[in-house]
Amino acid sequence: MAHELAPLPYAKDALEPHIDALTMEIHHGRHHKAYVDNLNKAIAGTPLEALSIEALIADIPGVPENIRGPVRNNGGGHWNHTFFWNILAPGKGGTPTGELAEAINAAFGSFADFQAKFEAAGVGRFGSGWAWLVVNGGKLEVVSTANQDNPLMGKAVSGTEGKPLLGVDVWEHAYYLKYQNVRAGYLKAIWNLVDWDKVAALYAAAK
Ligand code: MN
Question: 6 phi and psi, to 5 degrees?
Fold first, then answer.
């Protein structure tokens, strides 16, 4: 069955002023759509069509070599963007509470220390990629991946591992219209949009 581009879970202007409507329209309607279309094209007529997107990206080495690159890039792109749209929400932000807050304090010192480490991971990713908060072996970690790689791909593929709790796109297409070259400003603005209730639910399910 072909993978599908789900509609955004909110209006394209709902994340204003932090992420502008035109960026959301192009990012979802063109970039994410292209990942879905190109993934479907790559796996058309192969047994991989039967796999969920999660199963597909969890076994990139098992993908036939002639389509491994396109599946890694476009499958990762599809999963990553679906996750990204859903971990953000208008009117959210603030700070985590409960067990998640305790785990963040235990792992990073404080919420502010976590934010600084996450922003540094995003700013420090040369070129295109993602910053992540993951739970790995029961512990919280901040990592980053290149291009459309994802911690679920595992260490041998992505250089990272663990279950994503938060992921932020740091490709220029995610912020350039509003923030131009100032990736750090975009990353600071993202804190106004993170849905910590969803992050906490993912943490509770993962640990
Ligand atoms: Mn993107």
Answer: -75, 150
